[in-house]
Each structure stands twice: as C-alpha cells, then as structure tokens.
Amino acid sequence: MAETFGSAAALLSLRSPQNPVVCVRPHLIEERARRVVEAFPGDVLYAVKCNDTPIVLQSLWRGGVRHFDTASIGEVRLVKRLLPDAHCHFMHPVKSYEAIAEAYHEHGVRRFAFDHEDELAKILAATDHARDLELFLRLAVPGQGALLTLTGKFGVESERAVDLLRRARAVAAAVGLTFHVGSQCVDPESFARAIAIAAEVAHAAGGIDHLDVGGGFPARYKGDEPPFEAFVRRIMGAVFTHRLGCALQCEPGRLLVADGASVLTRVELRRDRALYINDGVYGNLAELKWIGPQFPIRLVRPSGVVCGERAPFDLFGPTCDSIDSMPGPHWIVSEVKEGDWLEVGMMGAYSNALRTRFNGFVSGETVVLRDAGWYLAKVEGATALAA
Known about the structure:
The protein has helices at residues 8-14, 26-39, 54-62, 73-82, 97-107, 117-126, 158-171, 189-205, 228-241, 254-257, 287-290, and strands at residues 4-5, 21-24, 43-47, 67-70, 87-90, 111-114, 134-138, 146-148, 174-178, 183-185, 210-212, 247-250, 261-271, 274-277, 297-301, 304-306, 310-316, 325-333, 341-344, 365-369. By secondary structure, the chain is of the alpha/beta class. It has 2 domains: 4-23 and 258-369, Beta Barrel (Lyase, Ornithine Decarboxylase, Chain A, domain 1); 26-257, Alanine racemase (TIM Barrel, Alpha-Beta Barrel), CATH 3.20.20. Residues 377-387 have low confidence and may be disordered.
C-alpha cells in the first residue's frame, strides 16, 4: 500500500526523497469517474494503457467504472486479478493468436476489435469459432481537432468496411463499429464527423448492435478545453441525426485520470532560464514534450508552496540524451533554485505508464495525497487553472 500524506509539502517535510515521486489523489479519480459514468448514456471503458497503476484502477472501480479497454493480454490479466468482476474488452485491432485464446477461454473476454480480414479469421480460430463473440470493426476516421492524431496505423476505410462488417455479422452474436478521433481532441465536431462515417457503413451493411466512439476526450490542462458533457451532447446529436439505434460505449483514458495525479521532481541545476530536473521524457514527464507546455507547475518546499512572480523556463531531464528536453515556456516562480521541488499537475495520464529506466535513472515511487487538486478551480463547466 502506498504511503499517504496530506500534501506535497508535507511529504517533503517528513522525508527527503532523492528521486521523483508520483502523487496520486484517489478521491479525485473516483469523483471524475462518477461524473463521466453519469454523463455518458452507455458503457464507459477505461483505457488501461493510460495508467495501469493498481491504485488508479481500484479508484476507478470505486467511482463506478465497470468496463475496461484492454490492449494486451497483460492488461487483461492485471484487470481481472485486481477486479475479478470487471468486464475486459480487447479493443486493440491487432492481437496475437495466443492472447486472443487466453482472453476468451481463461478470462471471459467476448468483445474483440479488428480491422482486417486476417485478424477476423485469427479471432475465430483462436476462440474455436465461438458463437458468442461481439466483434467491433475499427474504422479509419480523420484526426482533425486532436492534439495527437492516430491516423494511419489502425482503421479500415469505409469502402472496405461494409464487406468486413457483413462477414463479422455472419459469425458473431453481435457486431459494432469503433473509431478513435485522436488523443486530447478539443473539437466535439470531430466525433460528429466520425459518427457520420460510421453511420454510412452501418446502414450499408444492414445495421449494427453497438457503436464505440473511442477515446480522445480532453483533460483540461489549460482550462479552456470543452467539458466532457459538450462532447456527449454532440455525440448524441449525431447519433440521432444519423438514425443509429444501437448501444453506445466510449473509451476515455486521460479524461478519467489526468487530474488524479501530479509529479514531484527536483531541480538539480539552474542555468538562467533552463532548469535541469531529475525527471524527464524517459521518466514520468514524456507528455511535457509530446503535448507541450500546457501543464500547471508550482514550486514546493518543505515549508510549503512558494508563490511569487512567474517567469518562463525550459526544462531538461536527467539523461544524457538530447531528446530528454521539454521546451517551454513553462511558467514557474522566478526564484526557483537548485534543490527546489517542482510539482507538475495534471500528470495522471501517460506519466508513470510510459517511464523507463533508461540511462540508469530511477523514476521514483508512488504515494497518495489527500489534498484537493490545487491545479483546478472547483467550478465544473468553467474549470480554470488556479492562481
């Protein structure tokens, strides 16, 4: 069980960590999960790849999440070990024969995604041509509106999709369509465009039982991103417009957990407006490079949070690799110096899930904090970065 502290400052005052610390706030994850489950008119599948820490998965369960988007047999095993009553859905379009067989025969997985005729044949063979399969065909859709597009690797074009969906219908208990508009999507209209493509395929193939609108719902790093409810309204409007009378599901990842954790990292050297810290791209802070300087950062000392005039900084991780850089402007209290600790907020998504031991650096431990999410104002629907 992870140690619990009242705040990051309390942690620093009681201990003298040498490595980065991931600070999880389970109560915030539970609260977010409840709101998302209540707002979406269908099954909410947590994308396990986003953060597979046991305390995170258990917090989501307490918040009402019962379905999990698993992309590997390792994730299936983890979820079923921690949460035996959870429903795992194997939504990765490309899987090994052995993974499919174990998921079906040992863990009760019935819902599988595919985007190619050979993958469909593999699923059927690995499950001994079971008649209780629920098969989801992944469509290729545009990636406009997403900060990180996912086009190109997965998804079948609509011209080929109709035939594949009909093939699945002939052998499955239920069929569905799925897509992914891209990660950190800030445009609800992206989902409407993808649903229009799905509806065209569905109607041409004779209908579907399920529609999975994927993930990509944004975390509110800056505070001006549309709230989840705005995406739900646009999704439901598109479903109604295109007459899709089917069950719905979605696959949020960062939306559910981003504001549930922060990362504490120590400044090892200040060189003018450059800060060299003990965490970075190969540790818990990869998103500071790939998404950019959108994350709230505060200066914390054992005596408490330091306030004051802020200045723009560039950040550099501990490894000798030049890729290990996180260009700014990251706005940090200007008096920051060597030995100080930075708390990077909104780091529950793709932080410890991506960390490595590259170059021999340790990416730290995980603790529980019981304080509020300092980086978010408490007014839902008008969330803004706290001062």
